[in-house]
Amino acid sequence: MKILVIFACFSVVYAQKEHGKIMKECMEESGVNKDLLHYTFKTRNVTKDDNLIAFFTCTMVKYGSLNNQTCQVNLTGIKDMCTKMQLGDCSFVDTCEKKQGADCKETVFLVNQCVLPHLPGNGSENVIEACKNQSKVGADLIMKLHKEGIVSDDPSMVKFLGCVTDRFGCFDESGSISLKYLRGICAWKKCADCSFIDECEKKKGGSKDETAFLALSCAYPQMCKAKEE
């Protein structure tokens, strides 16, 4: 499955406010090792660690994907995301939803072991890190992008955006950029109006770096506004 640049790198700007809260709560409740959790999401490999399984159980329950009493799994949310964001073949969701172990603990393990390899972001860390190194973009600018949705016009950020979008195949032969994945995120987040993306997609500069900057600096503020409304 092709890695989705806009989702993998920038969707955190529009993430639901509850996501961070749930993650923090479940990390505390489960006592999961932070290094193990980082390794799990980086490699998409779920190990049979009691605290890790407790973490996934906690998040699934809080997101409504697991009935902790009956251990019934419902991955409708993931399937909805997969479909609206055009991630490709979403049949894996049905397959993963049917996974069943000897007990609820094993079921949670099997379901997450099945789901994680298919989720967007798989392998994106290497590309992002490479583009950070190549562009020499400052950590403060990355933080503002992630936390506040602010696209700085600093040359290093312009270069970073161009690098990431180019490596993920967002440009056609003419140098025009595709924001179809951002459009998918807009629909998934149930923004009132996503038509602005069509106009932002038409932005074109003298280079891929400039085109990426113009398109994303056009889309981000309107994306946030659409979500707020």
UniProtKB/TrEMBL annotation:
A single GO BP: sensory perception of smell
GO annotations of cellular component type: extracellular space
One Pfam family per UniProt: PBP_GOBP
Signal in keyword set: yes
Signal sequence interval, chain numbering: 1-15
Residue ranges of the TM segments: none
GO molecular function: odorant binding
InterPro entries: PBP/GOBP (IPR006170), PBP_GOBP_sf (IPR036728)
Keywords carried by this UniProt record: Signal
Source organism superkingdom: Eukaryota
Name the record gives this protein: DUF19 domain-containing protein
Source organism: Photinus pyralis (Common eastern firefly)
